[in-house]
Design brief:
With 232 residues, the chain is mainly beta. Helix 1 (70-77) runs parallel beside helix 3. It has one domain (10-225): Lipocalin (Beta Barrel). An 8-stranded antiparallel barrel has the order 1-3-4-5-6-7-8-9. A 7-stranded antiparallel sheet has the order 15-14-13-12-11-10-16, with no helix packed on it. Helices cover 8% and strands 44% of the residues. The protein has 3 helices and 16 strands. The longest helix has 8 residues, at 70-77.
């Protein structure tokens, strides 16, 4: 017997861009970040999130993981990117990560407050951090594609989408929690093989705006279904 995942309040649905990250949540802040590019796409149940720091290695001439240096592989395997199901209980929002580039043993839970219709404040329940989010889009068709394991490979809201390519079978779960610097190059390639692309629809197709594989950015894909799966 399967149980349907409850839909979120419609206020959360949309494409969100992070405009501020601060630690701790209350001033004086010891860390401020307004330059990392962060996109959170939220459908009625599913989410996808990717975060690309402003400072990155130079990937000129790279066309795949096989061509990456060890420094580049460590950077890729350390990125934050994930996808899964979202749950809201009162002011608490939980992101249940079913695919995670760099997983943690800590639950991902935020205390949420809408500053206005298109502005959202997120605080760590214990005050560890503060994030501000600005909604880029909230309307349009919602389209979800799942693979044969029930994991999302395409998440779309109107003219915005995130495509997800999942890792193949690999060395084991311990490799996901080991600091990247301690992994060999082959294991780093496997860990970094989980790929999230944020795409925007243009007249000639879908343009990759951000990607956890940066050499893919600015590519145009002419088909909305980029990975195997079935519509849900």
């Amino acid at each position: 017997m399967s149980v349907a995942w409850p839909n979120l309040p419609t206020a959360y649905r949309g494409v969100w861009k992070r405009t501020l990250y601060a630690e701790p949540s209350a001033p004086p802040h010891t860390q401020l970040d307004t330059t990392t590019q962060v996109i959170w796409l939220q459908t009625s149940s599913w989410h996808a999130d990717l975060r690309l720091p402003a400072e990155r290695p130079d990937f000129t001439g790279v066309s795949g993981l096989a061509g990456c240096s060890r420094e580049q592989l460590i950077w890729l395997a350390s990125l934050t990117a994930f996808a899964g199901l979202t749950q809201v209980e009162g002011e608490l929002c939980s992101w249940h990560r079913l695919a995670d580039l760099a997983p943690s043993l800590e639950r991902d839970v935020g205390a949420m407050r809408f500053l206005d219709t298109n502005a959202l404040e997120e605080r760590h329940p214990y005050g560890h951090y503060l994030e501000h989010w600005e909604r880029l889009a909230s309307t349009g068709e919602e389209h979800l594609i799942l693979n044969d394991r029930g994991l999302p490979t395409w998440m779309q809201l109107g003219d915005h989408a995130i495509a997800i390519v999942h890792r193949p079978s690999g060395p084991g779960v311990e490799a996901l929690f080991t600091p990247p610097e301690r992994l060999d190059d082959d294991t780093l390639r496997w860990r970094a093989s989980l790929r999230l692309d944020y795409l925007c629809r243009e007249t000639d197709g879908w343009r990759v705006t951000l990607s956890t594989h940066p050499w893919r950015e600015e590519l145009t894909c002419r088909h909305s279904v980029l990975t195997e799966g079935h519509a849900s």
